[in-house]
Amino acid sequence: MVKNLKALRNKKGVSQQKLAESIGISQQSINKYENHNIEPDINTLMNLASYFSTSIDYLVGHTNIDRIIENVQKYALNKEESATIDGYRMLNNRERESIRLIIQNYAANK
To answer: Residue 73: what pLDDT?
Structure first.
């Protein structure tokens, strides 16, 4: 079941028809995924995840992380650095881009 599809679609402000056209399926299919416990095939799940810049795990409710899950490199961080990273991860994409630009600006002046 695609537990988070409707929430993602509403958050993005896109209709079932627009979403369906964007990923190459019917509006009726989107309706079935959202309302009738019909499950999409893996290709459709991948297209939905790509469209919403999220993971299949989030779409199907296996995680509450609503962004693409990327490989993470290990770093030895102190408490302050860890808290900063935790705060950054709670931001939306626009807010993260603002922080990245601020850091780039400060780093360029060093």
So the answer is: 77
* Nearest by Cα to 48 from 5, 16, 10, 6: 5
d(CA 97, CA 77): 22
Sequence-ordered alpha helix ranges (H) in 53-92? 56-59, 79-89
Alpha helices in 24-92 (DSSP H): 27-35, 42-52, 56-59, 79-89
Q: In whole numbers, what is the pLDDT of the chain averaged over residues?
A: 92
pTM of the model: 0.65
Residue 103 to residue 95: CA distance in whole angstroms: 13
Task: Report which of 43, 51, 70 is spatially closest to residue 4, judged by C-alpha positions.
Answer: 51
Query: For residue 14, which amino acid is it?
Result: V
For range 1-18, the mean pLDDT: 93
